[in-house]
Every structure is written in C-alpha cells, then in structure tokens.
Amino acid sequence: MASDTLAGAPRTDAEISGLDALEIAGREKAPSRLRRVWSTTWPKLAALALAVALWQAVVWTGWKDPWALPGPVVVFEDLGHYVASPALWHGLATTARRAAVGFAAAVAVGLLLGLAVARVKVLRAALGSMITALQTMPSIAWFPLAILLFQLSEQAIFFVVVLGAAPSVANGVIHGVDYVPPLLVRAGRNLGARGLDLYRYVIAPAALPAIVAGLKQGWAFAWRSLMAGELLVVIATRTSIGAQLTYARELSEAPRLMAIMIVILVVGLLVDAAFGAADKAIRRRWGVLDQAGN
C-alpha cells in the first residue's frame, strides 16, 4: 500500500493512490437500517396523504351525497369498528383459505405446464401462444361457464382462480428457462449435470428470478379472480370479504363498503411486500443487489 506521507509531510487526498482511494471508499459507512426503511416508507406515506386529501376535496365539492360518497373520517371510523368485529376475521379467514388453495393449485398447474412447454418443442408450438391468450383473457369471462359447471359453489371460484393465475405462472417459468445463459447450461453439462439434475442444479436456480416474477403476477390475477368470484358467487353459509362487500352494497352502507375495499387493498399490499422481499433476497443472492439493497 502506498504510504500516506511523502518526505515527512502529510499527503493530501488528491495524492493518495488509486488503491488507497478504493480502500477508503470501501470504508464508507453504510446507511442505517432505520434510514433505509424511512427512505422507502415516506414516499408511500406521502402518496397516501395525497390520496386522502384528494378524496376529502371531492367530498367537499358535493359531487355526490354523503350517503353515497362518505368522507375519510367517517370511513376510517367505520373501519376501526370493522377491524374490531368478528365479521372481518371470519370473512378474512374464508377468503384467505380460498386464496391459498386456489393459488397453490394454480402454481402447481403453472409450474408443470411451464416446464413441459419449455422442455418439449412440440408442446411449445402447440400451446405457447395459447397460454399467452389465456393470460390476457379477463377472469370474469370464465364465471358463466364456471357457474354452469359447478353451480354457485366454491368449486366455481377455484376453477376461475386457477384459470386466471396458472397462465402467468407458466409464462414466468417459460421465460425464465428461455433466458438461462447457454454458457451456464454447457458448464453444467461439462460438470456432469444431465436430465433432471441439469434442471434442478442449473436451470431452475438461474430461472428463479423470472419464476418469482411470474408467481407475483399470478398472485395478482388470482386475487382479482377471487374477489370477482366472491362478488358473483355468494354462498350464504360461508361469509367472505367479497360477500360482505356485496351485502354492504345491497344495504347502501357506503362507509362499510369502502372500509372493506381498504381491507382488500391492504391485503394486496402485504402480499406484494412479501413477494418484493423474496425478489430482493434472490437478487442479492445472485449479486444483483448489495447488502444495502441498492
């Protein structure tokens, strides 16, 4: 390492060698965890405050009567009562169970279909464009068929959730496998990886970021399909978030209706945050992100 003195006189920063400068740069203190959390939180809080302010401004204009468009104060007060009531948690438990079962089935179908299409050229030629077409089809368009097949039952909801989410998962797998560097595949084969071992130890880890992106998009389709299903297929003996939203609309309970919509939004944000954390962990493992998340 170059000395920090020259002829007994201290050296200035400009005189420090390139290696010394790199060493000093590496010693720079990383931002604290609290600062990193705040830097990602305050934009969300600012956007939320702006949305609430715009909401209140629209209410003040008198565009709609208060019974149809209540203000934020009334809605958040009702939200507090709703959170403290058993109705929310019973409905949320039913909706969460349906979401978990439907999404798990969609993931299983999507992974198997995606791997098969990515591996077999004939299947890719036959089903590749069809999977994309199914992905673009609105989930609600499946409900007339689902109700004819399964009547007003949970099976009808699961049917649409799987059809809505599985194509996104399959496309994530296909694109992930397609973009694995050929050099990486050749290196794996040279090291003795063949068949399933090649997919397990080389292709699957390399395709994981794209697969997670497909899972995230698949969850978004599954959640939207589930909410549409619970609005259309109301089972009287099984309360759910969607059913409670329908009841609030039928009874013209606007504060409760908007409170339920806020709950649906919060659930979506929490799941999105979980997928975001998984995506960051994967990218950090691959060296795309540093420990600070940059």
Automatic annotation (TrEMBL):
PROSITE patterns: ABC_TM1 (PS50928)
Coiled-coil annotated spans: none
Keywords for this protein: Cell membrane, Membrane, Transmembrane, Transmembrane helix, Transport
Lineage: superkingdom: Bacteria
TM annotation in the entry: 45-63, 99-118, 130-150, 156-177, 198-215, 257-278
Stated family: Belongs to the binding-protein-dependent transport system permease family.
Protein name: NitT/TauT family transport system permease protein
Organism whose genome encodes this protein: Micromonospora chersina
Record lineage: Bacteria, Bacillati, Actinomycetota, Actinomycetes, Micromonosporales
